[in-house]
Amino acid sequence: MVIDLPPVSVSPAIKASAEIPLAGGASGRFYSFDIGGAGRDGKAPDHVAVRFPGPSVEPGGVPLVRIHSECLTGDVFASLRCDCGPQLQESLALFGAQGGYLLYLRQEGRGIGLVAKLKAYQLQIEQGLDTFEANRALGFRDDHRDYGIAARMLQALQVERVRLLTNNPDKAAGLEEHGIEVDAVLPTRRHENPHNHRYLHAKREQGHRL
Pathway membership of this protein (predicted)? Predict the structure, then answer.
């Protein structure tokens, strides 16, 4: 049995690392971290970064980075109620061509968790609320995510400058607030369907660049 040990040259905040082959012939090095921060259950979630080889991560390059919040319904089951799954697939295609880092944050439902997200969906269906109104009706803020976590992940990987793939200005602001230089913000495409039209409209009203 061959054991893939984590590289010794990176930050001690990295708990483990392994190269994993992916569909389509690509591969990525997956990293898990010990960077503090607790989820809503009081435990520290296992956030993951994936480094894809390519020109943007070579010496002298500014890596392409996508901060992607976990969405079980969209990422795994291809839910049409959001655009999370298509955004993730779009990002992976770009990483395959350019290289870069995917930061997969375990912050389901803008940080409220899967159970609360499903309750919010039910309010949207029964009462016609949008995604933000439903969260507020459950007693949550519009967004509970912490992008300082993403900054600490990048710092552990010795990444100080990025080109950020996002439509959400809060992500760029969160990185810069915690010491990561954002050279450019690159938008994702608008992945609209009849089921997520109101969801995308609500995000645009909240300042997303759609």
Answer: Cofactor biosynthesis; riboflavin biosynthesis; 5-amino-6-(D-ribitylamino)uracil from GTP: step 1/4
